[in-house]
Amino acid sequence: MDRFVLVTKKLSKRFPGVQALKDIDMEIRGGEIHSLVGANGAGKSTFAKIISGVYKDYEGEIFINGEKVVLDTPQKSFQYGISVVYQEVDSALIHYFTVAENLLMSSVTQYGSFVSQKKLVKIAKEKLKSLGLKLPFDLNTRVSELSVSQKQLLLIFKSLIHNSRLIIFDEPTSSLGPVEVEQLFEIIHSLKERGIAVLYISHRMPEIFTISDKITVFRDGRKIGTFPRDEVTPDDIIRYMIGKSSQKIEISSKEMSNTPILEIHRKSDESQKLVLYKGEVLGLTGLVGAGKTELLKEIYTGSKDLKVALDGKEVRIKTSTDAVKMGIYFLPEERRKEGLLIKENLIWNMLLPSFGDFANALGFMKDKEAAQVSKRFAEKLRVKFADLRQRVESLSGGNQQKLIIARWLIKNELKGARVILFDEPTVGIDVGAKEEIYNIVRTVAESGIGVIFSSSDIDEVLKVADRIVVMRDNKFIAEIERKDFSEEKILSLAAGRHEIVKN
Ligand SMILES: Nc1ncnc2c1ncn2[C@@H]1O[C@H](COP(=O)(O)OP(=O)(O)OP(=O)(O)O)[C@@H](O)[C@H]1O
Ligand SMILES: [Mg+2]
Questions:
Q1: In the listed set 416, 438, 457, which residue is the last one of a domain according to the structure?
Q2: Which ligand is nearest to the CA of 429?
Q3: Ligand 1: which of 22, 24, 45, 58 to mutate, most ligand atoms within 8 Å of CB?
């Protein structure tokens, strides 16, 4: 297997105002798991998109199995055996089609346009069998009924059916929990055994060090180097990524205040209650689907089943507007869907809930002040941008996320919050900026408000929280103080491998 599946020479790509990639030389072998890392905006997705035929106007050369190719359409890349599993798996599948239809999609026409579902299932089964693959769900299921990780699996199997040589994963685990990540890794290992090359893009350092044979680092559109996994440490990689050592936060158990700021009781189940104290960062964790997002949404948009008290007084929240008025802010998980205005500029996106504070007596925006605040927060969160007035659709994924975090931090600075609910705040955000966000979250809490930090990434909850509540099947199942934190314990609680533990 000493052949290079993919070689690029001096690969470059410019967007208006930014050189996204410059002179990238890459070599990826079959049977190799090759990670690609870099800060937000470093050019990772741009590289993946060029290789998958999305951009026609790249410069430089691409070789597949030694043959020089021009990858100017996604179809062409697919024919050369390149497939991509994007984070937004949804866009790559047709929801109202069945699993079998999606699996055979690009070849459906080859079987005639009126093939029965039964026949498709039969063909799909045979194809899977001949490759030694077995899908853990029914081929007749509609894609809309699958979970994110099942959809990913479907995409991976689809690429295998179509003879993939190189599979690119662009942040595949950002909506997966620890158990699903384990499953994905098993699959990636079996791809490796089949001699397939894997390009793995991620911000999760522990994952990168678990899975990679080699690690390539990009910084500001350039390649810093490719390193065998065993010859570098995570600290080295972070230094190459951001050009300096990362400043880690050290948190020790602190004397917690015992003034509750937010109290929640579930009316339908007396045993279900949660108290958030003043100045506290409460980590809320559990597997994907454990009910964390639902709970936060219930708090923020109101629920008949929840009794909520703020500063000791019962409050009635009916809509998110009520919540914001009371000083309860919420950073949603699905930021691209629920919060971002991608056709608008950075200032708009950061100041959306704060416009009132930037209007003069006549209702016109105070442009200069608005720009100043936006700039300060964009820099604080290390957003990589060319112009505050560019549309946010031209920012990289992670940089888009940061704007929504900035939005609520700005609102908090202008009109002090009582409680901030963060739902998966660091998904897609690079290591350097993550540490920055942990610091900000800690500082914000210390100013006397309450923070719920919800995340399926147990490592980061252990880092940032004063106390952790574990959820499973829509219920709080354990509450752990900082001095008793243990990754193993939390993981087994979350996965249901333990009996319920009350401390
Ligand atoms: N469609 C576009 N128009 C203009 N600029 C773009 C476009 N897509 C990406 N860019 C710019 O190219 C640079 C590289 O972006 P890219 O999406 O490749 O980063 P990334 O490494 O994938 O980052 P992240 O970790 O945040 O996903 C960024 O400066 C980004 O703003
Ligand atoms: Mg990206």
A1: 416
A2: 1
A3: 45
